[in-house]
Write a structure and sequence with these properties.
Elements lengths: L20 E3 L6 H5 L12 E4 L3 H14 L3 E4 L15 E4 L6 E4 L4 E5 L4 H8 L4 E2 L10 H6 L7 H4 L6 E7 L5 E5 L4 H7 L8 E8 L1 E2 L3 E10 L3 H12 L6 E9 L14 E9 L3 H8 L12 E2 L2 E4 H4 L12 E4 L2 E3 L4 H11 L8 E6 L3 H4 L14 E9 L5 H15 L3 E5 L10 H5 L4 H14 L16
Parallel strand pairs: 2-4, 3-4
Antiparallel strand pairs: 1-2, 5-6, 6-10, 7-11, 8-9, 8-10, 12-14, 12-15, 12-16, 13-14, 13-19, 17-20, 18-20, 18-21, 19-20
Helix pairs in contact: 7-10, 10-12
Length: 468
């Protein structure tokens, strides 16, 4: 199916029944409505349909389908590849569809399609409940979950998509269907990691787990001098730690904040983030090695009892809205001494104050799920490496992208060849999409695409084209 780009003079009209907001070029609020997290993405939809409910989504899909127009869908707009934007055509903006309903007895929460993870956590934590969610609170529940969804709680309770019990979906032909274990189970399988290829999800039902509101968590910061030794010690510790520990190892430029010693501000340093998903007293003992045994006493010791919602915000300052961004997400089968040395060497070369390199420890409940039980791939990867370049001056673009590409080439010998599509700037490339799944899962996803979206209306995503 070809997707023509409408000219600037094309007039698009939604059905009179549409109750949400509409923005076209020149309207007040249009530029704000089309803006996404990544400032490298500057696309101008012909029409932005900010939907108020499922009926509005149906109207917007009908207009795109009948006009043969490009169609993009946005929740939080955090897709670094810009999948929440389109040049011409129609953008379905779900940000008007808020609301989280928590059933504490059943330990289930239903979130509408425009909910952000910070909003979700705020509601569920009223009952001391949580599910694995985004590490940045402004990330949308939708794209994060449909792409898999690694979070701090994942080693204990799996990916966000593993905790997805059901979803309400508007299909390419305008039907509203439920995907669950009992109804359209094949569609639920595809939604668990297959992205937005099969429809617009207008609500998500998640399994909840007892957690918080207070947890033992935080960060420590060390000078870069002993980064390789600290990285090895962190690896040895985290590989024997309980699955309740979520942790990351980071090389970054320490910000000019009061809690950072003056001699570290603005220079490369090491940060370890960690949280214990359980009793805070137990967590104090489990995380104690980070406070002196791993690399000696840290320059900054920020591990303490804190609200789970507070820990969830710790990475937010390193994800500023509107900065230019270029990311990668590569899986590692193991973390060798040479991999750590290479990671540190290239991490320290980042020049922008918001560019950094991060290693996440995975395994646990993530790898306990059978590879073919969901569409999501590469569950057996023990680590994920995530270089993040973020900058403000377009003149620095070549340098910042070059840093990511050079680091990627250096780390390639240690990767599995699999990628995490939620983190990929190049997520639209066919070879990257295939490398996000096992061959068996990819073939099954193509069959699902043939059934649910044979004309590939939903193609602005890590796209799985239909077979015909």
């Amino acid at each position: 199916m070809e997707h023509p780009t409408p000219s600037e003079t094309l007039t698009l009209e939604l059905a009179p029944s549409f109750h949400g907001q509409q923005f076209t070029p020149g309207d007040d609020g249009y530029d704000a409505a089309r803006a996404v997290y990544n400032g490298m993405i500057d696309k101008r939809p012909a029409l932005i349909a900010r939907c108020s409910g499922t009926a509005d989504v149906i109207d917007a899909i009908a207009l795109a389908r009948e006009g043969g127009l490009p169609l993009a869908v946005r929740c939080g707009g955090h897709s670094v590849a810009g999948n929440g934007a389109t040049e011409g055509g129609i953008l379905i903006d779900l940000s008007g569809m808020k609301g989280v309903h928590v059933d504490p007895d059943a330990r289930v929460a239903r979130a509408n399609g425009g909910v952000l993870w910070g909003e979700f956590d705020r509601e569920t934590q009223l009952f001391g409940l949580a599910t694995p969610g985004g590490r940045v609170t402004t990330t949308g529940v939708g794209g994060f979950t449909l792409g898999g969804g690694y979070g701090w709680l994942s080693t204990k309770w799996g990916l966000a998509c593993d905790n997805l019990l059901s979803a309400q979906v508007v299909t390419a032909d305008g039907r509203v269907v439920t995907a669950s274990a009992d109804e359209n189970a094949d569609l639920l399988w595809g939604l668990r990691g297959g992205g937005g290829n099969f429809g617009v999800v207008t609500s998500f039902e998640f399994r909840l787990h007892e957690l918080g509101p207070i947890v033992m968590a935080g960060l420590v910061v060390h000078p870069l001098d002993d980064a390789v030794a600290i990285g090895r010690a962190w690896r040895d510790w985290i590989e024997t730690a309980p699955d309740a520990v979520g942790s990351a190892f980071i090389v970054f430029r320490a910000p000019p904040e009061p809690f950072i010693p003056p001699e570290l501000q603005g220079v490369p340093a090491v940060m370890i983030l960690a949280m214990y998903a359980g009793d805070a007293d137990e967590g104090e003992e489990v995380l104690r090695p980070l406070r002196g045994q791993i690399g000696g006493p840290p320059a900054v010791d920020g591990i303490d009892r804190m609200p789970y919602t507070a820990f969830q915000t710790l990475v937010d300052p390193f994800a500023p809205q509107g900065w230019l961004n270029f990311h990668r997400g590569a899986h590692l089968a193991a973390l060798s001494d040479d991999a750590i040395a290479t990671f540190v060497d290239h991490g320290r070369r980042a020049t922008s104050p918001m560019s950094y390199s991060i290693l996440f420890r995975h395994g646990g409940a993530i790898s306990a799920v059978d590879e073919e039980a969901t569409a999501f791939g590469h569950r057996d990867a023990a680590y994920m490496w995530h270089p993040i370049a973020a900058w403000t001056d377009p003149a620095d673009t070549e340098r910042e992208i070059g840093w990511v590409r050079e680091a990627s080439a250096a780390m390639a010998p240690f990767t599995t060849g699999g990628v995490y599509l939620n983190f990929e700037f190049d997520a639209a490339r066919a070879d990257h999409v295939r490398s996000g799944f096992s061959p068996e899962s990819y073939a099954r996803l193509v069959k699902l695409k043939d059934r649910w979206d044979p004309e590939n209306l939903f193609h602005i995503n890590p796209n799985i084209p239909p077979s015909r």
